[in-house]
Design goal:
By secondary structure, the chain is of the alpha+beta class. The chain has three domains: 3-55, Structural Genomics Hypothetical 15.5 Kd Protein In mrcA-pckA Intergenic Region, Chain A (Roll), CATH 3.10.290.10; 64-127 and 216-237, 2-Layer Sandwich (Alpha-Beta Plaits), CATH 3.30.70; 132-211, 2-Layer Sandwich (Alpha-Beta Plaits), CATH 3.30.70.1560. 22% of the residues lie in helices and 29% in strands. It is built from seven helices and 17 strands. The strands form four sheets. Strands 7, 8, 9, 10, 13, 14, 15, 16 and 17 form a nine-stranded mixed beta sheet that branches. The protein has a four-stranded antiparallel beta sheet with strand order 3-2-5-6. The chain has a two-stranded antiparallel sheet with strand order 1-4. A hairpin with a 2-residue loop joins strand 11 (155-156) and strand 12 (159-160). It is elongated and about 65 Å long. The N and C termini lie far apart (48 Å). Residues 3-66 form the RNA-binding S4 domain. Its EC number is 5.4.99.-. GO terms for molecular function: RNA binding; rRNA pseudouridine synthase activity.
């Protein structure tokens, strides 16, 4: 049965469906020797598909891993500046996995890696609204008004952020710093840093402790584990275990 080219690529573990579309548009994919640049092109099971001149194999076994991303690692499969990537961290995983979403170079914490392009695309869709819980060390000690602003939404790049959960975990009056727990479900570029900056509290250090119901409390920096069957099913069904992180 014919399938869309980008879906077949994602199922084969080449990249997420969205990233596969980028490869197609860049002219890096051929079908039966012919370069294909049209999204939505359908292919048959017997068609020969190559990416960068390398044939792709059939659909791999779907795998799902949770990584406690270390600081100083880029969330990408390859880096043109030769920096260490999350794929380097999990280099002994046999399947060709890729990260779901991004964490900044200097941000640590929960990151999902998989070769399931369909699930990755679902999790990154704005309508999915998966909770992401961050622990941020910030300059200054946020007031109740600042926390309220974070909960109701602040202006970032001319657009108001969605409602969030925010609370102070601890603070140090002597050093003039605080640790804030912030729960969001959007995924804008540098969003947590920009939200806290907008209320006058620049981020010193940032860690994502939970992605949906997946926590990294039992993983050391750089460690990862395979997801349990029931965790995968929860992600696929959209039934997330939401834990209180401050009142809205």
């Amino acid at each position: 049965m014919a399938e869309r080219l980008q879906k077949v690529m994602a199922q084969a573990g080449v990249a997420s469906r969205r990233a596969s579309e980028t490869l197609i548009l860049a002219g890096r994919v051929t079908v039966n020797g012919q370069t294909v640049k049209t999204l939505g092109t359908k292919v048959e099971p017997h068609d020969k598909i190559e990416v960068n001149g390398e044939p792709i194999e059939g659909a791999e076994k779907k795998v799902y891993y949770l990584l406690n991303k270390p600081r100083g690692v880029v969330t990408t499969s390859a880096d043109d500046k030769n920096r260490r990537t999350v794929i380097d961290v999990v280099s002994d995983i046999r399947e060709r996995v890729y990260p779901v979403g991004r964490l900044d170079y200097d941000t640590t914490g929960a990151l999902l890696l998989t070769n399931d392009g369909e699930l990755a695309n679902q999790l990154m869709h704005p309508r999915y609204k998966i909770d992401k819980v961050y622990i941020a060390k910030v300059k200054g000690i946020p007031t109740n008004d600042a926390l309220k602003a974070l909960r109701l939404g602040v202006q970032v790049d001319g657009k108001k952020t969605a409602e969030a959960r925010a609370e102070i975990v601890k603070f140090d009056k002597h050093k003039g710093t605080a640790t804030v727990q912030l729960t969001i479900h959007e995924g804008r570029y540098h969003q947590v840093k920009e939200m806290l900056k907008a209320v006058g509290h620049p981020v010193i250090k940032l860690h994502r402790e939970r992605y949906g119901m997946l926590e990294v409390n039992d993983l050391l920096s750089g460690e990862y584990r395979e997801l349990r069957y029931e965790e995968v099913q929860q992600l696929k069904s959209g039934k997330q275990v939401r834990k209180s992180a401050g009142r809205l």
